[in-house]
From TrEMBL:
It is found in: Membrane. It catalyses: 4 Fe(II)-[cytochrome c] + O2 + 8 H(+)(in) = 4 Fe(III)-[cytochrome c] + 2 H2O + 4 H(+)(out). GO terms for cellular component: membrane. One of its GO terms (molecular function) is cytochrome-c oxidase activity. PROSITE patterns: COX2, COX2_CUA. It comes from the Bacteria. It holds the Pfam family COX2. This is Cytochrome oxidase. Its main location: membrane.
């Protein structure tokens, strides 16, 4: 997925660069024939807009989001408090069942942290901010059993990289 995002980004950059080169090559001394230039400008602009819209449709249909967008809130999920502090995570429970809707209630005791859950394949599956004085709800339903990890995604001091917690997702009983 990350690769396809990279490819799309590179394609987009190439497109912008090509447009830039096109404009540079086509610019020149001022022409007296304003009418013709305007007509041509409108023509290019129209096709540019149509192209942009088409690209937008393709990209959204392709759903180029690295993790699923948060679905509408789940009925009566299991609530798990998650507290970040320099430099550890404290989860009220670190054991859940696959398929069980979970709502992480995320906060921090000191500075801002990034609460990010990574799957057994080290792909990020969900994330939110851990902020002092606020609770951010993060709804997650773990589809597969395995060892998941919570990492801090926001630099929060010397031992930021040690903020790791494990979530053990068990096979559905
Ligand atoms: Cu907490 Cu970085």
């Amino acid at each position: 997925m990350q690769i396809s995002i990279l490819l799309v980004t590179l394609l987009g950059m190439a497109f912008v660069a090509a447009a830039f080169v096109f404009v540079v090559l086509n610019s020149g001394p001022r022409d007296e024939d304003y009418g013709g230039i305007a007509k041509r400008g409108y023509f290019i602009r129209r096709w540019w807009m149509i192209g942009l819209c088409a690209a937008g449709v393709v990209v959204s249909a392709w759903s180029l989001v690295p993790f699923p967008l948060q679905a509408s809130s789940v009925e009566s999920p299991r609530i798990i408090q998650a507290i970040g502090r320099q430099w550890s995570w404290e989860l009220a429970s670190s054991s859940v069942e696959a398929g069980e809707p979970v709502r992480f209630r995320v906060t921090s005791l000191d500075v801002n942290h990034g609460f990010a859950i990574y799957g057994p394949d080290d792909q990020i599956i969900a994330q939110t901010q851990a902020m002092p004085g606020y609770y951010n709800d993060l709804d997650v339903t773990f589809e597969r059993a395995g060892k998941y990890r919570v990492l801090c995604l926001e630099y929060c001091g010397l031992a930021h990289h040690t903020m790791v917690a494990e979530i053990d997702v068990k096979e559905r009983r």
